Amino acid sequence: MNILHTSDWHLGHSLYGRRRYGEFQAFLSWLLELIRRENVEVLLLAGDVFDSALPGTQAQALYYGFLRDVSAPDSPCRHVVVISGNHDSPTFLDAPGGLLSAMHIHVVGRAREPEEECLLLNGADGSPALVACAVPFLRDRDLYRASDGDGADERDARMAEGMKEHYRRAALEAERLRAGRDIPVLAMGHLFAAGGQAFGDDGVRDLRVGSLGQVSADVFPPLFDYVALGHLHSAQKVHGEERLRYAGSPLPMGFDEAARPREVRLLSTKGRNVSSRGVAVPSFQRLERVEGSLADIEKALRKLSQEKESVWAEVVHTGSEPVADLRERVEDMARGPLEILRVRNLRVLPEGMEADPEQETLEELGVEDVFERKLKDAFPERAKDDPALEDLRVLFREAVAAAREKEQSCAS
Ligand SMILES: [Mn+2]
Predict the structure, then answer these.
(1) Contact criterion met (CB below 8 Å) for 69 and 34
(2) 250 CA → ligand 1 middle, Å
(3) Could you give the C-alpha distances from 26 to 23, 185, 229, 281, 312, in angstroms and in order?
(4) pLDDT per residue over 262-283, tens digit each?
(5) 2-280: CATH, from 2.60.120.260, 3.40.50.300, 3.60.21.10, 3.20.20.80
(6) Which residues surround ligand 1, an ion (CB under 5 A)?
(7) pLDDT tens-place string over residues 48-79
């Protein structure tokens, strides 16, 4: 039986104010095609379906349109299992659960008792083919009752203990459901497994120890034949264990991760044996980072302006010469298919001189950089990854995207 593991779609994500619906649509069409071609019978979606807790109507339309197509009579896919990630609203995902379950789409948004998260799924012949432990992103409150005076260390220890207990109970239930059959047990999770790697602006913003604190690989009992993970955006296995896999996000969530290969994971099962291979996801939007002195930048941008396909670029000035009006000059250099999404000035200063934030000029900063500075001024006592700040960032990005769209429709 063929199974597909994917995660971190982040539907609704915008890149520096640019909406990405075209890319999402292209990815979902590609995925449907792959599911048909590879005769995929079960699809596992390991969290961060949406980029925000209250996704816009277009992001929702993409999700439901895809679910309709993947469960259409002509699709080989018999079951879809979806768990929530830290970006998703658990209750929002759960809301249509009753309706979706009639289409064999199993959604676990809110954490339940571990036993209730386990499913016995049938194959084409109607007999049990696998057990899935659909454990969603677990929040602090799902795992333990905090008592006053708990220090950070106690909280971490209790989180780790709670998570281990959750997966232990899920494994027991899986064993019961399997009832001695020669079928595999697949677990899911949205968490940061220790040993995993996040790269640059990986979109993984909360690496703090705590709600997404690192959990060690021994959280997953050996009974699990494969663990389909979400949260880290680069495809990887954990601690060299073939059965512990991150599928990674199919679309790069920033320029830092643009150069890394994207994939979905195709599993093939035989009895309890699970083997898997990565299937490369094509790029649906070219992203380029251009770095160097103003002369280097100009040369590179001229070249990119000749391309046939659309290019979104980030420009990083690292020259030693000061450049006035960097943003304006760079934007003037972009032609044709080339759009500049972000300009950063990392001018190399003569030795002994420290970068002085007071000297920062507004035109070197992107709107998101300015917003970050303002957040810091307004809430100096909050941690950078405070969920309340994260909500404000999401709202801000929405507002920027809406403003840009308006600007474009006025211009055209
Ligand atoms: Mn994610």
Answers:
(1) no
(2) 11
(3) 5, 32, 23, 11, 17
(4) 999 999 999 999 999 999 999 9
(5) 3.60.21.10
(6) 8, 48
(7) 999 999 999 999 999 999 999 999 999 999 99
